[in-house]
Amino acid sequence: MGRPDTKAKKRGIRRLFTWKKVLGTFLLLGLVGIGGLYTVYLLVPVPTANAEATMQSNIYKYSDGTILARTGEINREIVGLDKIPLPVQHAFVAAENKTFYKDNGVDIKGTTRAAWNTLTGKGKQGGSTITQQYVKNFYLSQDQTATRKLKEMVIAVKVDEEMSKNDILAGYINTSYYGRSAYGIQAAARSYYGTDAARLTTAQGAYLASLLQAPNQYDWTSASATGRKLVEDRWNYVLDNMVEMGWLPAAERAGLKFPVPREPKPLPGMEGQTGYIVEAANQELMRQGVSEEDIKAGGWTFTLNIDRQKQKDLVAAVDEQLEDEIDRKGDKKAATVQAGATSVDPKTGAVVAMYGGVGATEHWMSNATRRDYQPASTFKPIVLASALDNDAETQDGREIGLNTIYDGTSRRPVVGSPIDFAPENEDDRSYGPVTVQKATNSSINSVYAQMIVDVGPEKTKKTALALGMKDGQDFGATPAMSLGTMGASTLDMAGAYATLDNHGKKVNPAVVKSAQHSDRQVDMVKQTGEQVISRRAADTVTQAMTGVVANGSGFRAAGDYQAAGKTGTSENNRSAWFVGYTPELVTAVALFGEDTSGRIAEQVTLTDAINPGRANGGKTPALIWGDYTERALNGGSDARFELETEKNTGGYGEPTWTTGPTETEEPTEEPSEEPTTAPATTATTPPAPTTTAATTPPPPTGKPTTTPPPTQEPTREPTNTATVQPPDTGNPGGGGGGDESGTTPGLSTQQPR
After folding, report:
1. Is the pLDDT score of 168 beyond 70?
2. Which is it for the CA torsion 156, 160, 162, 165, positive or negative?
3. What are phi and psi of 60, to 5 degrees?
4. Of 143, 447, 495, 695, whose CB is crowded by the most CB atoms within 10 A?
């Protein structure tokens, strides 16, 4: 017998699995796997950022820093890591990835454990590093697939090689979702604690870091008792890890209390005045060269000049003086009334308040910035400013000033006009010889129509543009310009009057104080500038307009403050204005007649819409102005105009005067640039009045409730040959550009309207 065979052949499956074969196969598969991974590494590039990752909201703040609005599909505002306190940065690392500063972007052990837990039914586990989560947020999607996970790991390794840890951490913190529709730490800080990321405490930062594991479940304000315990446990876990890593002293940790977040608030929307203000800010930025596409891409923080309290005051004044009345009437006629207003600080050019209409979601066009209505007689002070600044004279050689005598006869043909022009005064009322001051108080069309020809329409237009009005196709240099026949916005008129209030130094009204983006800053236009008309000219116009408020058509705007202003009522009563100012505040208020019931909005008359008869500038617009100004000045002001007026306010020659129309003549319905035949005239020479120096009248001590004080005229006012008119009965015609007038002693007993 031979020796037994110790290497007997293995039978069955054992023949296929020897340790050498198993080891060889394992090594081969390992090499193939490594080769495959390397191939994937080479083939998978770092992609461009996904669209949502780069989307940000735009933030619009009031002047005091509180948020007016946040726009954009994604509520995110990216902030640099330097704006995030270091303990808050460490809280995120402690919560998600303690080895972040040492790893290479991928945690194989953690990923394997997470995959095993998911497969064995222990729930989906993250297991991803901060770098991987940043890659998922910034470059990929939230899909839970093996392919996406593999790409995530490969890209994470590449990103870790190409970017600094600080840049990765900043990207992660800014792209993560925190619940409450908040993307990024800045939006989260505001949503949960009403503060900026830069002001977060360690305890607050630890809570926000805790949220990322389950944002909706961990919102403490809406969580159940169990949910609150879970989030507090998570918060404690984060702080304990910070102590372990040496990022938080144990003694400080012991003193921290859970920072209960505030109740969630809805994101500010575009309702009410917000939409109008946001659009005005955007338009202003576009005028500075920023494209609309850049603005819509987001990432802007606008700090506005809008004063939160003054904005409330303006809305309250419009509501009380107009909207409540419209609601009470409740008819279609009243519904055609639109209001617009702009308020400016004349010293800084800041637009402190705007009223664009009933609401941007209801009436999309802003009544504060639209230019499709005429400013009417609010343009007359600009005619006077041009006359004074250009040292203009009447055609018989008299210097134009506040005491210069003009003929106030209605429909008097303008002498020296290149076209036939004979505008009608309101109600076809004739005043005879009057001073420029009286013509300003009572808004006498015939006087200013002659004055603009004496000055020169081209020079007047140049003055208007220098003061801040905007040019356009309807801004023709013709005598009719004296009636404010061009288009203008309340923003335009507030700017022009602010320049007058600022003693002739240019004021450029600005809604935006600053506009910053994450990667740039825009230099905004200078809000105040050079001297555009002389101080004496500007101050003399202010002097004239104090008479409008104290003794003239704007008496309803008077209050416990010194004020200057001008009323205006446009052709066919389609718009009614009051533009005025105190030493501290300039405000333009306008009403517009607009029928929006059809497919296309149409301008309509304001007659009988709010009250019987005309909606003159001295009525509701002046009441809104006075109500708002009183609120904005906290009940009143002791500030006074510091005026350097023209010393020689006008000469008195011996002009030939024309009589007014007879009682049998019918007034024209509206003034026109077309030739108007004047009645036969009789030459008379008025007695020369005693010259009186231009002085600033004392401010009224309160709003008059009946009639204004007697008109202050030169001591020897020439006799008026016009027929005394009866009280207003709501005649809808006439007076394009004219206004209601105050009571003139010896001429009429009719009440101001």
Report:
1. yes
2. positive
3. -115, 120
4. 447
The conformation of residue 709, written as its DSSP 8-state character, comes to: P
Q: What per-residue string of b and e applies to 687-707 under the rule 16 or more CB within 10 Å gives b?
A: eebeeeebebeebbeebeeee
pLDDT at 667: 31
C-alpha–C-alpha distance, residues 371 and 369, integer Å: 6
- 522 strand-pairing partners: 515
Distance CA 628, CA 730 (A): 27
Query: What is the token pair recorded at 209?
Result: 């870091």
Query: Considering only CA atoms, which of 482, 640, 616, 490 is closest in space to residue 560?
Result: 640
Beta-strand ranges (E) seen in 317-396 are 337-344, 351-355
| Range from 294-308, 510-524, 586-600, 721-735 carrying the lowest mean pLDDT | 721-735
Closest CA to 336 of 553, 573, 494, 557: 573
The H or E element containing residue 303 is strand 300-304
Which of 119-128, 205-214, 521-530 is predicted most confidently?
A: 205-214
Alpha helices in 44-184 (DSSP H): 51-54, 86-96, 108-119, 130-138, 146-162, 165-175
Q: How far apart are the first and last CA of the chain?
A: 143
Location of structure tokens 């007697």: 710
Q: Which amino acid is at 218?
A: Y
Alpha helices in 589-656 (DSSP H): 620-632
As given in the structure block, the two tokens for residue 385 are 């400013």
Report the pLDDT averaged over residues 263-276: 85
The alpha-helical segments, DSSP class H, found in 552-708 are 620-632
Give the pLDDT of residue 15. 55
Tokens of 577: 């204005």
For tokens 């190409």, name the residue. 162
666-679 burial: b if 16+ Cβ within 10 Å, else e: ebbeebbbeebebe
> Which residue type, as a one-letter code, is found at position 28?
L
Reported residue count of the chain is 753
Asked whether the predicted pLDDT for residue 527 surpasses 90, the reply is: no
Helix, strand or coil for residue 319? Answer: helix
Collapsed DSSP state (helix, strand, coil) of residue 516: strand
pLDDT of res. 102: 85
Burial class (CB in 10 A: 0-12, 13-18, 19+), 26: exposed
Closest-CA residue to 351 (of 306, 313, 393, 293): 306
Tokens of 529: 């500038």
Please state, in angstroms and rounded to a whole number, the distance separating the CA atoms of residues 375 and 570: 7
Residue 644, number of CB atoms within 10 A of its CB? 14
CB atoms within 10 A of CB 563: 27
Q: Are 697 and 547 in contact (CB under 8 A)?
A: yes
For strand 586-595 and strand 575-581, is the pairing parallel, antiparallel, or unpaired?
antiparallel
> Mean pLDDT over residues 198-212, rounded?
96
CA angle 307, 309, 312 (to 5 degrees): 110
Any residues with CB less than 8 A from the CB of 312 and at least 6 apart, and which? none
**How far, CA to CA in Å, does 400 sit from each of 396, 436, 500, 617, 647?**
11, 8, 18, 26, 12
* 3-class SS of residue 646: coil
Where is 411: in which H helix or E strand?
A: none
Reported in sequence order, the residue ranges of 523-657 that DSSP labels E, i.e. its strands, are 528-531, 564-569, 575-581, 586-595, 602-603
Write the pLDDT tens digit of every residue in 366-388.
999 999 999 999 999 999 999 99
Residue 378 · residue 342 · CB < 8 Å: no
The C-alpha R_g of the chain, in whole angstroms, comes to: 37
